[in-house]
Amino acid sequence: MSRLLQPAEVERQLAALPGWSTDGTSLHRSIAFASFPEAVAAVALLAIDAEEMNHHPDIDIRWRTVNLTLSTHSAGGITQLDIELAHRIERHAPR
What we know:
Elements: H1 7-14, E1 21-22, E2 27-32, H2 36-53, E3 58-62, E4 65-70, H3 80-90
Antiparallel strand pairs: 1-2, 2-4, 3-4
């Protein structure tokens, strides 16, 4: 099991992940896409990354906006797996 990150560790690593925030137990990001099909396509791509990591985000699609929540439920909070998955998700965000 991955270890929980300390709040200072999370904040330091979020500096490299613009748009991401934390509530202390999870990471959060909303990403707006140009269209609903683009949003769904991005989710399909990030699902492949999540499956490869065996670490799955909570995903909510609202028209063109994808809302993501990352947390390592088995550890009870944020671990390095969440940070790594956030970086992978960023590869699918519009520039």
